[in-house]
Design brief:
about 20% helix; Neuraminidase; four-stranded antiparallel β-sheet; alpha+beta; 7 helices; five-stranded antiparallel β-sheet
Length: about 425
């Protein structure tokens, strides 16, 4: 994470010329700009504690709107019109680029803050209800987040849960930014985290557990040239990080597994064998695949702890996978009390069986079954693994491949690290 010199001090003297007092310290969270955005060949700024949206162009500052009740998020549509959240009244307004006329655009929300516009929709961090919405001018759609009413009337309790958008939870998110491909970044303010919504799932990008310097109170955020910027409202600074970049020298764009490995690394599903190598064609051990499942669980549940009480006859406490296997045993993904053979190369049927049991353990619907008669080697699948194969084929997690004897599943073959990553990313989608 990098720190970016704040623009706030540079504007302080200019703003004071139009009658606004400015905080002496950037650490004073009571007097800060919440958001800024390019608008009408200049820059618009929201200034919550002074109740104003300001406009700067060619060094001159004017007031677009004043006497507002805590204005926060800003967004601009393809036509150049400006949108801003008036959080205190739970409304969003639109300012016409040509006439500067202001009209009410959305109402009925609960403390909206961060805004982002993309592909004809306004995306909203509805802070008061701990969710992310979209609005196309007619319909308001909840993308992710759950509203739980608290004991205090009119307020909602947040939490920290990654996973499918239907179950994911935020805690008073204040920032949102939508990429052209549809990926949504969220400042999950009270969880001190940056979250990401992609392919129907929510997972964490930054959080305090992984930062050398805390992300104290993330607010407005945006992406420019593959760099994500976020204003920390407590520190009074803008922080930055590079988004997805392939750090593995043995994974290149022409490889069939390239997108799977890059996405898996971005999601923190895998770390690589070294800082710069992934070993995509390397054989996968049984313990390594269980670790991948544990990582999947971690990015699906921000409060998860990987540990447990299960024990195995061939696993001791000093082994790197001790806690991971204990967790998997407790989750009934693997059978405890026996030898697990952690360093043994995993077979495809054992890999799919572990994934099948994992899906059931986390509440996924595992009832789907496919007819495997089209596969010439289906008779080689162990009876204990048959349902797992039927489920994975039914859900198109695996489709088999063509061998000398026709279409096969190769249940007794080993699996490479690249194959395992593809299977897990396909499952998560």
């Amino acid at each position: 994470m990098k720190r970016i010199t704040s623009i706030i001090l540079a504007l302080a003297m200019v703003f004071s010329c139009i009658g606004f007092a400015f905080a002496d310290s950037l650490a004073d969270t009571e007097d800060q700009i919440f958001a800024s955005i390019q608008f009408n060949d200049g820059i618009a700024y929201s200034y919550p504690d002074k109740g104003a949206v300001l406009f700067e162009k060619n060094g001159k500052v004017s007031v677009l709107v004043k006497d507002l009740d805590y204005p926060t998020g800003l967004a601009v549509d393809n036509a150049g019109n400006l949108y801003f959240s008036e959080t205190g009244t739970s409304k969003i307004y639109k300012i016409d680029e040509a006439t500067l006329k202001m009209t009410e655009y959305v109402s009925g929300l609960t403390e909206p803050m961060g805004l982002s516009y993309n592909a004809g929709k306004l995306y909203i961090a509805e802070t008061g209800k701990n969710r992310i919405d979209s609005y196309d001018g007619k319909n308001l759609v909840v993308i992710a987040g759950i509203e739980y009413e608290s004991e205090t009337e009119g307020q909602y309790d947040g939490d920290y849960v990654d996973g499918r958008v239907a179950v994911a939870e935020f805690d008073h998110p204040q920032g949102v930014f939508v990429m052209d491909g549809g990926t949504i970044y969220v400042s999950d303010t009270n969880n001190h985290a940056i979250r990401k919504i992609q392919n129907g799932r929510v997972y964490s990008v930054w959080n305090n557990r992984e930062l050398s310097d805390n992300l104290s109170k993330p607010g407005d955020l945006w992406v420019t040239d593959s760099t994500l910027y976020v204003r920390d409202l407590y520190l009074g600074e803008t922080l930055s990080m590079q988004l997805v970049e392939n750090k593995f020298t043995d994974v290149v764009k022409k490889d069939w597994f390239y997108s799977y490995v890059v996405e898996a690394a971005d999601r923190k599903l895998v770390k690589g064998m070294t800082l710069t190598t992934f070993a995509p064609e390397g054989s996968l051990t049984r313990a390594q695949f269980v670790q991948m499942l544990a990582n999947t669980y971690l990015i699906s549940n921000g409060n998860a702890v990987i540990n447990g009480d299960s024990r195995f006859t061939d696993v001791v406490e000093k082994d790197w996978y001790f806690k991971t296997l204990a967790w998997a045993g407790d989750m009934n993904i693997i059978t405890a009390g026996t030898a697990f053979r952690p360093e043994e190369k995993i077979t495809r049927q054992d890999m799919f069986t572990m994934l099948y049991k994992y899906a059931g353990a986390v509440g996924e619907d595992t009832s789907a079954r496919a007819n495997l008669s089209a596969f010439s080697d289906a008779n080689k699948i162990s009876a204990s693994c048959l349902e797992a194969f039927q489920w994975t084929v039914a859900n198109k997690i695996v489709e088999g491949h063509t061998g000398l004897l026709g279409k096969i599943l190769a249940p007794l073959d080993g699996a490479t690290r690249a194959q395992a990553v593809k299977i897990l990313i396909t499952y998560m989608k």
